[in-house]
Write a structure and sequence with these properties.
Blueprint lengths: L5 E5 L5 E6 L1 H8 L3 H9 L7 E3 L2 E5 H10 L9
Antiparallel strand pairs: 1-2, 2-4, 3-4
C-alpha cells in the first residue's frame, strides 16, 4: 500500500492544506526501514523534519526538493 501524506490545515495561513509524512510513511516511500530514516535524522542527514504535537513529520514539498537535490546516476555511457 502506498504511503499517503497526512494533511494538516493551517487556519492562519488562509486555509492552506499542508501535507506531511510520518517516519513510517517516509520509509515506505523510499523503500528503507524506519530505523534508517531515524538514523539519518540523528546524524543530521536526510530530508528536513519538524516535530508537530510531539511527532516527527516530514513536509512533502521539502521531501520532494531533497529528492531532486540527490545525485543522479545511471544513464547511458558510450
Amino acid at each position: 500500500m502506498a504511503a499517503t501524506p497526512t494533511r494538516i490545515s493551517e487556519a492562519g495561513a488562509g486555509g492552506v492544506s499542508l501535507r506531511f509524512y510520518s517516519e513510517k510513511d517516509l520509509a515506505a516511500v523510499l523503500g528503507v526501514s524506519v530505523k534508517t530514516v531515524q538514523g539519518w535524522r540523528f546524524r543530521g542527514q536526510g530530508p528536513a523534519w519538524r516535530r508537530l504535537c510531539g511527532a516527527v513529520r516530514y513536509d512533502v514539498m521539502e521531501f520532494n526538493s531533497w529528492v531532486q537535490a540527490q545525485p543522479g546516476g545511471g544513464g547511458v555511457t558510450r
